[in-house]
Write a structure and sequence with these properties.
InterPro entries: CWH43_N. The protein is mainly alpha-helical. The protein has a two-stranded antiparallel sheet. α3 crosses α4 and α8 packs antiparallel against α9.
Length: about 290
């Protein structure tokens, strides 16, 4: 059971600002991608390059770094909010493994999205990986590894959370029992039942749709990433002339996968607003009991 001390202001535990953080982080993520895509001068025939290629050159390089750094900070605060409030406290009571995987996945996503934003691909990446070039640099490899950390972490977090979203069984009778048995004047806590649904129907459906999309797009985007292809020399790297179609298709799947994860994290704003409303109702009920006493 998640307990709220009687002498605390339960509504302050979920402020309006906290409720807006997930949505704000999602907006920054989408805005960053749109901004660098708009500014970047794309090679002829390339219409949907992988996101990493949008941050190589100036001025988009600075936009890429700042945008994803802010996105990572907001995402980190979002994950912190979820654990400081009731979501993963209740998940932990149901399944410690799910709570742990969700926590680790969230941290990995934060580290990955922030790291790949700060450590971008080398400015001469496209030239370096052409036949006869020096190939991928250590900076390029580190960027790709951090991007992989984001994808793996986001998948671990979203899949764990979505699986639990359908395990929370509504229990209005339990809520009413807790409220009626709690003594507002005794200092005993009023508890939120673990079976109280954490996610609204809209939130569950939205999260499920995001997971379904990412399950299809993310593996394709990673397995067939252009930097994993073979160029004409038999070396790993992009062959821009021969593989333009592949670059476009794989870039598009990456946009879809990242977009799904962005929407998933943004949907936590719905859940936090619902939790805030629930806590307000709980506080009003507790105040009414005190007046009756």
């Amino acid at each position: 059971m998640v307990t709220l001390p009687d002498n605390s202001s339960v509504v302050e535990k979920v402020s309006v600002t906290s409720c807006c953080i997930p949505l704000l982080g999602s907006c920054f993520g989408v805005g960053t991608i749109l901004a660098v895509y708009t500014v970047t001068e794309l090679p002829p025939g390339i219409h949907t390059p992988p996101i990493s290629l949008l941050g190589c050159q100036q001025p988009e390089h600075t936009i890429y770094q700042l945008g994803f750094s802010v996105t990572g900070l907001l995402l980190g605060y979002c994950v912190l909010i979820l654990f400081r409030n009731h979501f993963y406290l209740q998940i932990q009571e149901y399944s410690p493994l799910l709570a742990l995987s969700g926590w680790i996945g969230g941290i990995m996503a934060v580290v990955g999205v922030t790291g790949q934003g700060i450590i971008t691909l080398h400015p001469d990446f496209l030239q370096n990986i052409k036949p006869g070039g020096i190939g991928m640099t250590q900076q390029d490899r580190l960027h790709q590894q951090l991007a992989l950390v984001f994808f793996v972490g986001a998948a671990l977090h979203t899949y764990s959370t979505c699986w639990f979203a359908y395990r929370g069984i509504p229990s209005n009778e339990k809520m009413e029992s807790d409220l009626s048995n709690a003594s507002p004047t005794s200092g005993s806590p009023i508890s939120l039942p673990a079976k109280q649904p954490l996610f609204s129907t809209t939130s569950r459906h939205l999260k499920t749709a995001c997971v379904a999309v990412s399950l299809l797009a993310a593996p394709i985007a990673e397995m067939y990433h252009p930097t994993r292809l073979k160029n004409d020399t038999g070396e790993n790297g992009i062959a821009p002339v021969n593989n333009k179609r592949i670059v476009n298709v794989i870039g598009l799947t990456q946009y879809v996968a990242v977009g799904a994860y962005i929407v998933f994290f943004g949907s936590y704003s719905l859940d936090l607003f619902q939790l805030r409303q629930r806590l307000q109702q709980l506080q009003q009920t507790r105040t009414g009991k005190r007046k009756d006493e």
